[in-house]
Amino acid sequence: MAVVFERPKSLIQQKFHYCPGCHHGIIHRLVAEVLDELELQEKTIAIASVGCSVFAYDYFDVDAIQAAHGRAPAVATGVKRSRPESIVFTYQGDGDLASIGAAEIIHAAARGENITVIFVNNAIYGMTGGQMAPTTLIGQETTTSPQGRNPKSAGYPIRMSEMLATLPGVTYIARTSVHDPKHVRETKKAIKEAFQVQVEGKGFSLVEVLSACPTNWHMTPVEALDWIKKEMIAYYPLGKFKSAEEAK
C-alpha cells in the first residue's frame, strides 16, 4: 500500500505542548515539510526564540540554538556568517520579533543577512498570559487592555512585513495565514520560496503567518479561525510584499 501521508523527517515524533487550536503545530509541520522537500535537514540550524515556541528545538529534528528574548536574528547572523554553508532560520512570535526584538529584526533585514525568518503573528503575548503586543488590534481586549486597545494611549498595531519590505536589504517578504486548508497550502508555498531565496544566496527572507491563540483570545478554536478571517486579515492583508524578482 502506498504511503500518502507521514511525519516529515525534519520533525521529531512527539506530541506538541501547544494549547488546543493553536497553530504552531501546523506551522512547524510546514517548515519541516519544506526542509525535507529541499533536502536541507542535515545542513539546517534553527534559532528558537522566547515565547510559546521556546521549545521549538524539541520538535524540529535539526541542530538548534536558543536565543535570548528578541535576539534570534542576531544569533542567526553570527551562525550564518561563521557557517555560510548552513541554512539558518529563526522561529519567532510577534512579542519576540516586534517588541523587544524590533531593533534586531530591522537591522538584520537592513544588512540583508542571508537568513530566513518565520514570524508567527497571533496579535498577543501568548506564553505570559495574554498581554497586549505590538500587533494587538485596535479594540482587542487583552489582560493589559481589558477595555480594548486604545490607539490614543497605546498607539497602533505595527505592520512588520510592510515596514521591513521597504528596506533595500530585504529580498523576500510574504504574509500568509493558516485558518483554512487553502491558506495552509499558500503558507507552505511562501515558506518554500523563502528558504529557496536563502539557498540561492539572495539575502534576507521572512514569512509572517497569522496564527490563532484561542486560549488568550477566550474563543473556541473554530471562533478563532473566523476571527482571523474577519478581523486579522482586514488589518494585516495577505500577500507578497517583496519578491526576489523585485529585489534585483
UniProtKB/TrEMBL annotation:
InterPro entries assigned: 2-oxoacid:Fd_oxidoreductase, THDP-binding, TPP_enzyme_TPP-bd
| Record has Oxidoreductase as a keyword | yes
Upper lineage is: Bacteria, Bacillati, Bacillota, Clostridia, Eubacteriales
Transmembrane regions listed in the UniProt entry: none
Q: Thiamine pyrophosphate enzyme TPP-binding domain: from which residue to which, for each copy?
A: 57-209
Is Translocase set as a keyword in this record? no
Superkingdom of this protein's organism: Bacteria
Q: What keywords sit in the KW lines?
A: Oxidoreductase
Matching PANTHER family: 2-OXOGLUTARATE OXIDOREDUCTASE SUBUNIT KORB-RELATED, SUBUNIT OF PYRUVATE:FLAVODOXIN OXIDOREDUCTASE
Q: Name one GO molecular function term.
A: oxidoreductase activity, acting on the aldehyde or oxo group of donors, iron-sulfur protein as acceptor
Protein's recorded name? 2-oxoglutarate oxidoreductase
Q: Which GO terms describe its biological process?
A: cellular respiration
